[in-house]
Amino acid sequence: MFGLNKRDTGLIAIVTVLVILAPFILNPFPEGSAMAQFNAGYPDLMQRFVIFGIFAIGFNLLFGLTGYLSFGHAAFLGVGSYGAIWMLKLFSLNVIPSIIMGVIVAGIFALAVGFVSLRRSGIYFSILTLAFAQMSYALAYSVLTPITGGETGLQIKSTDSPLLSNLEPGEIGRASLFGLDMRSSFEIEMGDWLFTFNTGYYLAGIVMILAFYLAIRITRSPFGMMLRAIKSNQQRLNYTGLNARPYTLAVFVISGMYAGLAGGLMVAMDTQVGPERMFWTASGEVVLMTILGGAGTLIGPVLGAGFIKYMENIISKINKGILEQWFAFMPDGIEDLLITLVYPFVGKGWHLTLGLMFMAVVIFLPGGLVEGGQRIGRVFRRRDRKSEHAEADAAKQRNTPAE
Amino acid sequence: MGILEVKNVGKRFGGLQALNDVNLSVAENSVHAIIGPNGAGKSTLLNCFVGKLIPDTGSVMFDGQSVLGRKPYEINQMGISRVFQTPEIFADLTVMENMMIPCFAKRDGAFRMHAIESIPNEKDIIAKAEHMLEDMNLSDHRDMHAASMSRGDKRRLEIAMCLAQDPRLLLLDEPTAGMARADTNNTIDLLKRIKDERDITIAIIEHDMHVVFSLAERITVLAQGTPLVEDTPDNIKGHPKVREAYLGETQTAA
Questions:
Q1: Which of A106, A341, B5, B171 is the most buried if burial means most Cβ atoms within 10 Å?
Q2: What is the ipTM for the molecules in this complex?
């Protein structure tokens, strides 16, 4: 369907269902219960899941297919965000033009950065992209303050009056989709459960499904095959009459535009931007997401993004009080011991947990979470086959007359 | 006038004069072998044909056009394909994908932004690639990763990939290096068949005299960066200068 094969259609169908039902799926625990803090079904976090999903999908097109490891992708996200917020401030409070602007600005910037950086490959390419990103960050912080708002960043102010809006003087504009406020939600209560459906989340979710669909098409296209060929053997590619440069530049720009799309959506959800969005740790995070989920796989980056954002927002909220609650049923001495042991891994220590999990994945599952899933699937299939064999053997024995 | 005309080519690496005033003419639709002892400059010369190296002096003309200063992919698009000493294939891709890539390169040129098309719709490419695989007896490996094939199969795949572009000149850099006798003979037969079936010029660098004398119509002997003689295989066999170069009889003769 839609030019996809059966498996890919199935994959995108699953993703679509998950995105639509996320407010239910991510809120499995009733409000007020001890487990409620593991609920991730609130708009702010769900938006982050899908937006970082888009960011990682785009990054994976570059890194997963060609093997070029960009260490400065957050710069495109940041530049896209700045483009988007200026559109909201000056042109229209509708988020569509602002998101499009984010994509365009990031694409142009990626063209410039890619043109220079792609002259080198391997570690030198990574360093060049990192240098560009840190330069952008430093500039946004200092000399470009008139455009970027410097340290405080940019937000919609009461003095802003976009061209296509009729705000009362002094009214602060709100980002909307043809009049539908991005921040509006409606809630359903079912017994003890509370489910929130947020406009912004669904906009971002639909955009992510489209972005995911496009990424599958690109991966399965002849162009995608050429990109994998670049990763596999660039020498053979050159001696097969193919010029690797425009291929890598094209995918670099596409990847930058995905980052810009993510940046634009961030602005649409929460109308503010700061330069820290371009800091190198933000670039590193998308690398982690992609590798954790499974570089070069279709769904991996989305999983990785969800995983890291969940850890960042949920594990980091567990504090000493909550641990005490959990272990309250134990004898005092053991309780204290357990709390002391667990405490470094939660709350502010969530990075430690993430780091350990990342190491475990890289060492034991080089293909990321996707490989983990495949291995589990294989174990089950093997067990099925074994039990079939066992039954067949049993049947055979029953049919053999006893001597 | 040959399809490949090499005039006065010289190349120096630091203190080493790797090539010195090389003149060579490869006639169209012939099999031309370049032989010589280790370090004679055979590979350096080949690298000057394909754009990997640019000679310090002289000219290399392919079909009346200079190849010097052009990128490898441009030279390939002119009609020169190269087979490497160790098979260079796309190891992480399937055999079929390996075969399709040169078909795309032949049809679409050095770059085309076909990012939305889907591969199953490229009927003509698939047909051509499958035909080439069948012709090379590789159809059984169609969906295998190229990396998991045997050395001989990899070699055949690489040759098939080069042929898929219908090159006018096929350059082979020691195609049977490290092969068992049986594989070597298969490769010889394959190259003979290619020669018979196509309008193609083959230039081959080879150590193995068995291969050279079974295939070549002309032989150039290179020693210390300079061509010693160029002649037919029969004349080369007994040529005193060749024996000198290979057996090092210079001093005893002097």
A1: A106
A2: 0.90
